[in-house]
Amino acid sequence: ISICRDLPNIEVITFSVNGISDLEPLHQCQNLSELYLRKNNIRSLDELFYLKALPRLRVLWLAENPCCGPDPHRYRMTVLRNLPSLQKLDNQAVTEEELSQALVDGVEITAPPSRSSVENGWSQSTTSSAAGSTTGPESQLLSCSLEETDKTQEELDMKPVPRDKYSSFSPQEADCSCKKRNNVLNAILLLMKELDAEGLEIIQQTVARRLQALQKKELQEE
């Protein structure tokens, strides 16, 4: 599916029965109007986050994926709440009544999937949102490799992640620390792309204060 990053003008995609679990490569397909993803391995409805930016998407077939969960009504309402321009979902026409009901029964998806464990087809962030509670920062983090983080940093003209950053840890500790650090970093970098000049100035001031505090702490420890 990663090939879709190089096909921004594609209009119809049929990826049914392909073991697909990640929809991020589709978010640049601005001309996409029909998307068929039946019988894949899409475990979280949070993947819809990447489809919300597709203005021409009218047909989506997502049935028989783990993300459909145990409640067909909640699943359909959540999809329609986040993709109200759909005319057909899972080979069934979308009605005006459903779109209105989706505003009440559907769950608004406002962040990318956390790539964490999913139970019964619903991710932690979606479940918490449905319950009206807020999730912790870690539940919203993107799971990414060092290469993915480096790519994001390159887009922002930043230095890549040093590979020996965690060399002093044991292999398991280094892997855990590296993943957590890069999850946090990649989430922050992605969000920075959405900020205007004023927002970036606030981030810059906050980072400067944080660096001063850390440097002061290091000096005290020495």
UniProtKB/TrEMBL annotation:
<dbReference type="GO" id="GO:0097733">
    <property type="term" value="C:photoreceptor cell cilium"/>
</dbReference>
<keyword id="KW-0677">Repeat</keyword>
<dbReference type="InterPro" id="IPR003603">
    <property type="entry name" value="U2A'_phosphoprotein32A_C"/>
</dbReference>
<comment type="subunit">
    <text>Found in a complex with CFAP410, NEK1 and SPATA7. Interacts with NEK1.</text>
</comment>
<feature type="compositionally biased region" description="Basic and acidic residues">
    <location>
        <begin position="148"/>
        <end position="166"/>
    </location>
</feature>
<dbReference type="InterPro" id="IPR025875">
    <property type="entry name" value="Leu-rich_rpt_4"/>
</dbReference>
<protein>
    <recommendedName>
        <fullName>Cilia- and flagella-associated protein 410</fullName>
    </recommendedName>
</protein>
<feature type="domain" description="U2A'/phosphoprotein 32 family A C-terminal">
    <location>
        <begin position="72"/>
        <end position="90"/>
    </location>
</feature>
<dbReference type="GO" id="GO:0007010">
    <property type="term" value="P:cytoskeleton organization"/>
</dbReference>
<dbReference type="GO" id="GO:0036064">
    <property type="term" value="C:ciliary basal body"/>
</dbReference>
<dbReference type="InterPro" id="IPR032675">
    <property type="entry name" value="LRR_dom_sf"/>
</dbReference>
<comment type="function">
    <text>Plays a role in cilia formation and/or maintenance. Plays a role in the regulation of cell morphology and cytoskeletal organization. Involved in DNA damage repair.</text>
</comment>
<dbReference type="Pfam" id="PF12799">
    <property type="entry name" value="LRR_4"/>
</dbReference>
<dbReference type="InterPro" id="IPR001611">
    <property type="entry name" value="Leu-rich_rpt"/>
</dbReference>
<feature type="compositionally biased region" description="Low complexity">
    <location>
        <begin position="125"/>
        <end position="136"/>
    </location>
</feature>
<feature type="region of interest" description="Disordered">
    <location>
        <begin position="112"/>
        <end position="172"/>
    </location>
</feature>
<feature type="compositionally biased region" description="Polar residues">
    <location>
        <begin position="113"/>
        <end position="124"/>
    </location>
</feature>
<keyword id="KW-0433">Leucine-rich repeat</keyword>
